[in-house]
Specification:
Layout (H helix, E strand, L loop, with lengths): L3 E2 L2 H14 L4 E4 L10 H11 L8 H10 L10 H13 L5 H10 L6 H14 L8 H12 L3 E9 H8 L9 E4 L1 E4 L2 E6 L7 H10 L5 E6 L5 H6 L2 E5 L3 H14 L3 E4 L18 H11 L5 H6 L8
Parallel strand pairs: 1-9, 2-3, 2-7, 3-4, 7-8, 8-9
Antiparallel strand pairs: 5-6
Helix pairs in contact: 1-7, 2-6, 3-4, 6-8
Length: 310
């Protein structure tokens, strides 16, 4: 048995069939690369660095992280400048993936939830994120919810950022899991609410949020999503990453698990006798990013054009 190339329509039919067997089941979606082609965590982080929006509460920890990499920085360097050094270190292969991903969450310490929401909305608008939406995946998720099937987004991006991006697509706040910091005195702290949903911890986050519920299916686009795929009754891999495709085939051969490859997650080919009607989501999504939240005057005032990252 090997992974099969299927359309979004066939994926929907597979999951609906499983839901009849396991009516309390959930369907887990990765976010970046799965629901959309870009990375909302990176887009928002880069936006905050360009406009120097990080709070100085994160400066000491950022400075420690830079020192641990053996890098130097000016004594007067501010939080956003230190984070930029770390960003460049990652680009040069000097900063490992997991601590880098974690840093993109705890570096927001000192900001309020509203501030980070505002910055995310502006970052996604600036990047034309609405054009990166995988329309076929959104239609699948909507059809599942319409049928009463529980959906969840499990991402290593900051939870607040992922929530802002997923909300216009119909996902409730309670369905979105990501990197989450505990709030203290109205601001984000450096303390984790739970481990970053990264690799195996994606499964742990989902199990904690939806305890003792079977996983019908998992959709993902990278090796980091394989633990979710192993957990689920059916695995759906997206895109053309050679490593993922190889491991999907191994998963299918080793476990006899139904394993599938969706080469065109952006496609509207999701119609069947019982599936959703075609509709143009793009204008709706673009408008919802604007209407989702009024940008605070404080956020607008703090943003001034400054030099880019590189």
């Amino acid at each position: 048995m090997s992974s099969l190339n299927i359309s979004c329509a066939s994926a929907l039919e597979q999951v609906v069939g499983l839901a009849k067997e396991f009516p309390q089941g959930i369907v887990a979606f990765d976010a970046d690369g799965t629901l959309w082609s870009d990375d909302v965590g990176v887009l928002t982080f880069h936006y905050c660095l360009r406009h120097r929006l990080l709070a100085e509460e994160s400066r000491e920890r950022l400075a420690l992280e830079v020192r641990q990499l053996g890098l130097s920085f000016p004594a007067q360097a501010r939080a956003s400048e230190l984070a930029t050094i770390l960003e460049n270190a990652r680009a040069e292969g000097k900063y490992a993936e997991r601590p880098y991903t974690e840093m993109q969450v705890w570096a927001y310490a000192g900001l309020t939830e509203n501030q980070l929401e505002d910055y995310t909305i502006q970052a996604l608008q600036e990047a034309n994120h609405d054009q990166a939406i995988h329309s076929g995946m959104v239609a699948i998720a909507r059809e599942l919810r319409d049928r009463g099937i529980q959906t969840a987004v499990i991402s290593a991006s900051p939870q607040i950022v992922a929530r802002v991006a997923a909300s216009p697509l119909g996902f409730a706040s309670s369905e979105v899991l990501g990197g989450l910091l505990i709030q203290r005195n109205g601001s984000l702290s450096h303390e984790w609410a739970y481990p970053l949903p990264y690799g195996d911890d994606k499964v742990r986050a989902g199990e904690t949020r939806f305890p003792k519920r079977p996983w019908l299916a998992a959709f993902g686009d990278s090796d980091f999503d394989l633990p979710m795929m192993r957990k689920a009754h059916s695995a759906f891999g997206l895109g053309q990453k050679a490593s993922l495709l190889e491991k999907l085939s191994r998963l299918a051969l080793g476990s006899q698990k139904p394993t599938f490859h969706l080469a065109e997650p952006h496609s509207w080919n999701v119609s069947s006798s019982e599936s959703t009607q075609k509709e143009n989501l793009q204008p709706e999504i673009a408008q919802s990013f604007t209407q989702e939240k009024n940008i605070s005057p404080e956020a607008r005032e703090t943003i001034e054009p400054k030099a880019g990252l590189r």
